[in-house]
Specification:
It holds the Pfam family rva_4. This protein is an alpha/beta fold. It has 2 domains: 2-33, no CATH class; 49-147, Ribonuclease H-like superfamily/Ribonuclease H (Nucleotidyltransferase, domain 5). 35% of the residues lie in helices and 18% in strands. Strands 3-2-1-4-5 form a 5-stranded mixed β-sheet. Helix 2 (13-23) crosses helix 3 and helix 4 (87-101) runs parallel beside helix 5 (116-126). The radius of gyration is 19 Å and the shape is elongated.
Length: 158
């Protein structure tokens, strides 16, 4: 779409999608097969696992968005825009969420330094056993917070 827009051609995404389906159905099927799908897993109860992540695409304009979703209910426990990626900023958002929703049993996050404070908080509250603190992982499912959630304050679920 960038090339078409640069040449002054105005095409909606829907029109482009329809044309691609009509003229290249086989290529369209191949592209669809490579889409990352939500992974199936079972979380036993609400607050048993929270997924945290940060979005840094707007960092050049001093916007960093941090979010956290409950793994069972898909409730957005917090989503905060700030002007930094510091640990104390993430800690403050996390603490506000725990005051509102209670403490999770576990938290899943990436390897970022901004999550170290949350790890320390979880260790203080839940102990230092590996199963009750921060679980580091690559966050395919959590990144969907920012790509597949329209945040509506009246409906805090994804």
């Amino acid at each position: 779409m960038g090339l078409l827009t640069a040449q002054g051609v105005k095409v909606t995404r829907r029109q482009l999608r329809d044309v691609m389906q009509t003229y290249d159905p086989q290529g369209n099927m191949l592209r669809r097969a490579q889409v990352l799908h939500r992974r199936d897993y079972d979380v036993p109860f609400i607050n048993s696992l929270w997924h945290m992540d940060g979005q840094h695409k707007l960092i050049n304009w001093k916007f960093v968005i941090h979010g956290c979703v409950d793994g069972k209910s898909r409730l957005i426990v917090y989503m905060q825009a700030s002007d930094n990626n510091r640990s104390d900023t993430v800690d403050a958002s996390f603490l506000r969420a725990t005051h509102e929703w209670g403490w999770p049993s576990r938290v899943r996050a990436d390897y970022g330094g901004e999550n170290l404070g949350v790890r320390d908080l979880m260790n203080q509250v839940r102990g230092q056993s590996g199963s009750s603190s921060l679980v580091y992982t690559f966050l395919h499912s959590t990144r969907r917070i920012f790509t597949h959630c329209d945040f509506d304050p009246s409906n805090r679920t994804c």
